[in-house]
Amino acid sequence: MIIESLSIRSLIGVLGGVIAVAAATMAQSAALQDPTAPYSAAHNETASPRSPQLQGTFLAGGGERRAVISGRTYRVGDKFDGATVSEIRPYEVVLHTATGHERVLRMLPKLQRRAYFAPLQQREPQQAGGGDGPEAGQKP
Questions:
Q1: In sequence order, what are the residues at sequence separation of 6 or more whose Cβ sits closer than 8 angstroms to the Cβ of residue 128?
Q2: Nearest C-alpha neighbor of 45 from the set 57, 33, 56, 63
Q3: Is 88 exposed, middle or buried, given 0-12, 13-18 or 19+ CB atoms closer than 10 A?
Q4: CA distance 41 to 44
Q5: C-alpha angle 112/36/28, rounded to 5°?
Q6: What global pTM score does this model have?
Q7: How far is Cα 106 from Cα 55, in angstroms, rounded to an integer?
């Protein structure tokens, strides 16, 4: 009788531990975010329902190009939200409306190119016969 009650108590203890671990795992997985989601979705920024999201561009051999905009795949010439996909480039898509307006969808923000130049350091001229090199007139 004592052995049976110990077995039941230990079984209840193990079962309680399993439930606690499962609950902690479920709570932790709820906090995980999809790494492939657009930046605005991953950072809880609310995008307007009308703003399209460029999610990917595919440039294959033979000139075939496709773009994924808001979850749907488009080719050059396809219609999207009243505009025509006129060009698919790496990381961006160009749309033209019937009124002639151009809109560029980008996967990443456009980076500004800045040139930074480091000042040249002037070296002091070496004198013949001085320094660690061979003497003037000697072969190295």
A1: 135, 136
A2: 33
A3: buried
A4: 5
A5: 125
A6: 0.46
A7: 9
Is 52-106 in CATH node 1.10.3470? no
Q: What DSSP character marks residue 41?
A: H
Sheet with strand 79-80: strands edge to edge: 79-80, 83-89, 92-97, 102-106
* Exposed/middle/buried for residue 22 (C-beta within 10 Å: 0-12, 13-18, 19+): exposed
Pair of tokens at residue 118: 């480091």
Sequence spans of domains, the chain:
52-106
Separation CA 10–CA 2 (nearest Å): 12
Please, is 96 exposed, middle or buried when counting C-beta atoms within 10 Å of its C-beta (0-12, 13-18, 19+)? middle
Per-residue pLDDT tens, the chain, 140 aa: give them.
Answer: 555 555 777 777 777 777 876 776 665 655 566 666 665 554 554 545 567 889 999 988 888 899 999 899 999 999 988 899 999 998 899 999 999 999 999 988 776 677 777 777 777 777 665 555 555 555 55
Give the Cα separation of 75 and 96 in Å (integer). 14
